[in-house]
Amino acid sequence: MSLAERWDDFWFAETSLVRLAWWRILVLALAALDLVAYAHTALADAAAIDAGTQMKTWTPIYVLEALGVEPLGLAPMRCVIAVAIVALAAGWVGWRTRTACAVAAICCLFVTAHVYSFGKVHHDKVSFAFAISSLALGPCGARLSIDAWLARRRGEGESERASGAALPLRLTQLSLALGYAFAGWTKLAVSGVEWANGYTLMRYLMQYDNAWSRFLCSHVALTAALSWGALVVQGTFPLVFVFPALRWFYLPGAVAFHVITWFAMDTGPYMTCWLLLASFLPLERVPEWLAAEWRAGSAPRRARVIASLAPAAVVALVAWVSLPTWAFVAVAAFGAWALRPLLALSRAAM
Description:
The protein is mostly helical. It has three domains: 15-149, no CATH class; 180-281, no CATH class; 282-350, no CATH class. The protein has helices spanning 3-12, 17-51, 62-67, 74-93, 97-116, 126-134, 146-153, 166-191, 199-207, 213-217, 220-235, 239-242, 247-264, 271-275, 286-296, 299-322, 325-338, 340-349, and strands at residues 15-16, 161-162. A two-stranded antiparallel sheet has the order 1-2. Helix 8 packs across helix 11, helix 11 (220-235) crosses helix 13 (247-264) and helix 15 runs parallel beside helix 18 (340-349). The radius of gyration is 22 Å and the shape is globular.
């Protein structure tokens, strides 16, 4: 296969439409959580603008500056958030899916951009921006959607795979890989391998004190080992494209990196970032795999199922602590609906 053919195959290889559908469900769920997290601040800023009491400086991020966007008042901001909610709901159930995803991306990212233009930009949203913006570039409503149900009634949509289904996944994967890689390469470029001497990490632990900080600061060998682990996982992450089997090293490694930094430094969970690592997984096979492993009955295989569901438990805990009760109930109800295939497989095994 020529280099040009490999390039085309990377972006447009035939990919499961069910995988893209599960990806749509995950990304829009993350978008809803993100909207809940940022809407309060966006509305407060907008109300302050109307009242003339806004003390923050409007420093628009580049895209808003280039488009000449000015800060919004309360009424237009409420409209943007309302449209975002409707678009997210339509995208979840898969009605006019690609249009809904495009509108949801514009509205959700605008809310974030508005908040960022009055405060600090957080780099954990870069991959999320690629993920939600690229959904409409593929046939994201071809399965697990009202659109798919209507297509079947018309006698259409029989294919299970499509070449365009890979593009949203690939864009997210590449943004994640480059984000991790440049983080690792920057550490080496600025400080060299001395960055991993253990004391550099201790400095950050003391600056951003959290639950595990003092314990880790008492063990320089442990902070050195964690530093080397971060450099290896971040700096070599792009190898996952060369050797796909390495995702079973890099994905747990990246999740472990985020969880450790969350408890060791007061930087937040970066949950959006590490949940997007699911773009590397064959999502269409996950429910069947979980059911088959549990059905096998052996203790080691059931332990694998429990270990695989551990990240979901962490997500549920973070959502419970962070979200209003109504939002948590809504997300939990949607999650139960989305897991119906797994529940059906489990019942069939009994």
